[in-house]
Amino acid sequence: MLKKTMFLWGTIFMMGMCIFLSGCSCTKEMSEKQDIASVENDPLEPLNRGVFAFNQAADKAVLKPVAKGYRWLVPEFIRKSVINVFTTLKQPAYFLNALLQGQIKDAGYVLERTGVNLTFGCLGLFDVATELDIPEPDYDFGQTLAKWGWHDEGPFLMLPLIGPSNPRDAIGYGADALTNPLDWRLRHEPILVYSITAAEGFVKRERALELLDNLEKSSTDYYAAMRTMYRQNRQKKIDKVLPNEAQSVKEYEFDFEIDEEDE
Amino acid sequence: MKKIILTLVCLLWAIPALCADPAIDFMDKLAKEIIEEGVLATKTNEEREAFFYEKFTTNLDLKNIAKQVLGVYWKKASEQEKQDFIEAFTQLTTKTWTDRFGMYQGQNIIFQGTRNASQKNQILVDSKIDGNPPVEVTWRLRQKDGSYKVLDIVIEGVTMVISYQKEYTAFLQQHQGSVQDLIDELNGKINAFKYSEKK
User: Fold this and answer.
1) CB–CB of B112/B34 below 8 Å?
2) What does pTM read for this prediction?
């Protein structure tokens, strides 16, 4: 439970800093920078960039080499099974969030998937449910909070070792982590819980090796690229659970101006 | 009676042709060419890159994409900078997507339908790439003189044009709005670009 307590305090600290920074008045130069930051809703940008640099350093020193070694050492079919097990462990969170959002049918699908994969899929090693075309709803608590009325995600946050987020989704992430059945089962074995969490990080990193490399080598500002891609993708997931009138359409319906001489 | 049946048969035969959507046809043809000729038939990265460069310059509305991507800085840039930016942007985008298509693992793309965009002569084509989970992709096309050009690709809510715009704006804000600095940075990226090794 220690990591969850630290995570929650970290989030509260970051949120406090957001409020403080967005409210302070500074010099002209500072206020110009704040104008830029306010367009991106990233009042903590200098701090966030620092955290991003730390995450990048940790990735280059540990996460990426281990992920590469894991790919080299472990055959693909086993790697797939490991991913399946980690996905199965997320099902309680999906189920609870589906219920909290009133999506009873989807909650049923989650139960069905879990039942099929735990039995016919040998305790989640094989994703038989997907082969049987059982839908895969993946609700999280960030979406639940949005559904309950917290529509505005708030300022951008770059969380240490976790990555891009915002106050609403950071709280959601922490709440979802509490539903992991392994964490409950092993609550008296914190080292084991940390090891499993780290292993999940390496497994996820292995899946994204090429994609993140591609993004990094083609970006002129990797932090800004990650920030906007995370936000847009997250907004799409949030929009899925909101009624039409509350959905954000600004990203889709942006004014794509065409050169008049080209008309 | 025979004539009526014959007419009905002819009408039934003609329905698919009448219903065919030219925007979907355009995207379907382009996707097939990219997969069959660009990804599966090419052997080296250089060969693939040359194919994509040709496809991008003929099927993408690069001038309007570049204008949108540079945002407020487009008007501030000189004609030479605009031309240099379009060329550098095209080259880096070509390398980026050549690399991404190198990760292709046989997924199918299904075009589902079209919607009108809020701007005139622009149309959105919805598609889905199969996989677990499937990936939703929307293509923004511009119609001009009966033909189409791609303006933007939206993958799972992430629009390429807005992403590039935000990224380049962040870069330009840190470089006193110098478009030349951005062009130099893009050229540096192009020269340093290394293709990923296959899985």
Assistant:
1) no
2) 0.83
